[in-house]
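Sanity check

After download, print the first record. It should look like this:
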Amino acid sequence: MLKVIGSILCISGIIILLMLLATSNMHTKFWITSRFNSLTPMRIIKFNKKTIGIYDAGSISVRKIEGLRYNVSVRVTTYPLLVRYNNTLFRIAISIDNATVYTVRKTDYPVIRGYIASMGDTVDDVKKLLELLDSRCIGKVTLQNMFSSPYAIQGVFDIGDETLDSEISLDFILLIFPKRDLVKVISPKPPPVSSIIFLKNISIARLKGNINVRLEASLNVSRNQVTRAIDITMLGVLMLGVDIYRNYDEYKHTIEKLKTVLREMIKRS
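Expected structure tokens:
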């Protein structure tokens, strides 16, 4: 009985270990879940002749699986606006200096949302917001040089396993910093001089677009998985050793045969 169980454990442990070693060299990413939201601002703040748009980019909740490494892929797409002024239909683009997506734990999100709702519109308030996001986020990606004409830009960042709990519950906050020269007229060209002042004052709140956040994963063999495979193998070897010790006569012929084979191999080498 010990021989059968020991053999099964030993072979199973070796197979599992070989599978883990083989999959550790695979870098294929696969989709876990995603969220698709339109750009709806939480706050539009004007400070020191600058503007910042703050958006709720959705949330994701999944159960963590050991042996996977997770990363977040962010895609922001913006579209041109159609604005009518003085019986003329203008097609304009809101130019963006950069857009930053912060990933925070769901437990930290209420603190950040509360500050966003109550914060003022001074430079210090915006600085405190950025410090709060940097201190609470577990990852961020900055997308630069965007134009709503239309335009799509994507960024990816890894989330370390040490930052994740058994339940992955994440919220995403998008900050958009438009360029000082906010509006670019696409058509008609050249725009009437009388309309330029009106168009230049179009608010970023009218920005149209969407954000797609994807949680992806790739195989990443953990130390615990390798240790457990080795433990299973060693347990099988131990049980076989005990059975050999208790029933040495049954194994004597096999052991002698193995010794002979080993001697021949040593001589040939």
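If your output differs, re-run the checksum step. Summary of this record's structure: The CA atoms of residues 119 and 125 lie 6 Å apart.
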